[in-house]
Amino acid sequence: MSTILVTGGAGYIGSHTSVELLNADNKVIVLDNLSNSSKVSVAAVQRLTNRDVEFIEGDIRNEDFLTDLLRAHKVDSVLHFAGLKAVGESVAQPLRYYDNNVQGTMCLLRAMQASSARNLVFSSSATVYGDPATVPITEDFPTGATNPYGQSKLMVEEILQDFHAAVKDTGEWGISILRYFNPVGAHISGQIGEDPNGIPNNLMPYISQVAVGKLPYLSVFGNDYATRDGTGVRDYIHVVDLAKGHLRALENLQRGPKLAIHNLGTGTGYSVLETLKAFEQASGKTIDYQFAQRRPGDIAECYANPERALKELGWQAEFGIERMCEDAWRWQSQYPDGFAS
Ligand code: NAD
Ligand code: WQD
Predict the structure, then answer these.
(1) Can you tell me whether residue 45 is helix, strand or coil?
(2) What is residue 245's predicted lDDT score, i.e. its pLDDT?
(3) Could you give the CA distance from residue 36 to residue 333 in angstroms, rounded to a whole number?
(4) Which portions of the chain are predicted below pLDDT 70?
């Protein structure tokens, strides 16, 4: 059993990962400033697992507080989800993104150094591959960011690599960088899920809100890409598969200190129209759509080669697009207004 601090644990991916951690008998402490989430998700995690979670409302940039927390709870491992993630917002407010995502991670690393927490799993993103020359994408592809959000992830990856190089001779530190593709879906209970503020930026939450009648139709951003049907292709991954990937990544660090980088994706891409059709099937609803201009910064195709995660972590995604849509729909239809329902 480990004592694990989950930063950003009230959020979408952190809450689903907390469920898996608790089901595997770990002690979980959630630290979240609730800037993009609700405490209700933590209560739901406790209900689903029948286990206690210590919830602490606070900010990762408060280094002294973080150090005290890590020491007081004798935390050995940190899963670091806390961060801001909206690409468009990052273009408008770059300083806020660098402060939260980069400075926040620096505070966390210093607090870890000042305590005995030595394993860190970091939420990175396939966005660090920029516009890849080919697909599928392996971890050794060149990196490059196209917006401040992506740049903040890349900067943290570089900081983590430099930091690990400096401390690796201690034989104590394990750092795992997980590059998520497009997380979607929800826990099978439909009790926790993605709860975006305002109008969703991402495809699956947008489709869900059209299906439930909150939005009139989906705008499909571009139908002239060089893809099967002209719409953008992405590697959607079920959030529960993603959550399980974190447990495997942590076990990998516990087997021996190292710095590791892994893609977490399914290896299969679906177009916008294919995703919409899959959601129609799962929900039994007709989802209206209109073709619209390409969204600035979007790329045609992005999907993972997930072989390294299988080989080194023994992890691969189990759920396909049908199940992703069924679970997303269960959450959306049970809780049309998310955690405020
Ligand atoms: P989310 O917004 O639901 O969760 C992030 C959580 O972090 C929120 O609960 C928020 O309140 C909290 N938080 C933000 N800044 C904080 C701070 N300074 N101190 C304490 N708490 C803070 O987002 P998510 O989808 O669960 O994403 C989790 C992580 O995964 C993020 O780092 C994100 O960049 C990364 N990621 C997400 C996706 C995706 O599509 N969802 C893809 C790739 C990577
Ligand atoms: C998917 C496809 C759109 C909305 C983003 C971030 C990335 C990562 C995951 C955090 C694209 C199309 C979308 C809509 C549409 N997040 N679309 N109409 O852009 O692949 O990735 O989330 O790390 O960094 O950039 O995901 O869900 O926004 O878009 O046609 O209303 O759906 O053009 O082809 P994306 P997405």
Answers:
(1) helix
(2) 99
(3) 21
(4) none
Q: Which of 13, 295, 301, 324 to mutate to test the pocket of ligand 2 (most atoms within 8 A of CB)?
A: 295
- Look at residue 330 and give its three-state secondary structure: helix
Would you call 149 a catalytic residue per the annotation? yes
Q: Say what the pLDDT of residue 79 is.
A: 98
Asked if 42 and 69 count as a contact pair (C-beta separation under 8 A), the reply is no
Q: What is the pLDDT of residue 341?
A: 86
Give the CA-trace dihedral at 181, 8, 167, 124, to 10 degrees: 10
The CB of 271 under 6 Å from ligand 2? The reply is: no
**Strands annotated E in 3-69:** 3-7, 27-32, 54-57
Contact indicator for 125, 180 with CB cutoff of 8 Å = yes
Distance of CA 333 to the CA centre of its chain: 22
DSSP notation for 257-320:
--EEEEEES-S--EEHHHHHHHHHHHH-----EEEEPPPTT--SEE-B--HHHHHHH-------
Count Cα neighbours of 242 within 13 Å in the Cβ-side half-sphere.
31
CA dist., res. 81 & res. 125, Å (int): 11
Identify the residue whose C-alpha is closest to ligand 1 atom 35.
123
Tokens of 28: 């979980």
- Specify the pLDDT at position 146: 92
pLDDT attached to residue 74: 98
Q: What are phi and psi of 282, to 5 degrees?
A: -70, -35
Tell me the β-bridge partners of 4: 28, 77
Rounded-to-integer distance, Cα 133 and Cα 117, Å: 38
Please give the Cα distance from 334 to 55 (Å, whole number): 25
Contacts of 167 (CB under 8 A, 6+ apart): 173
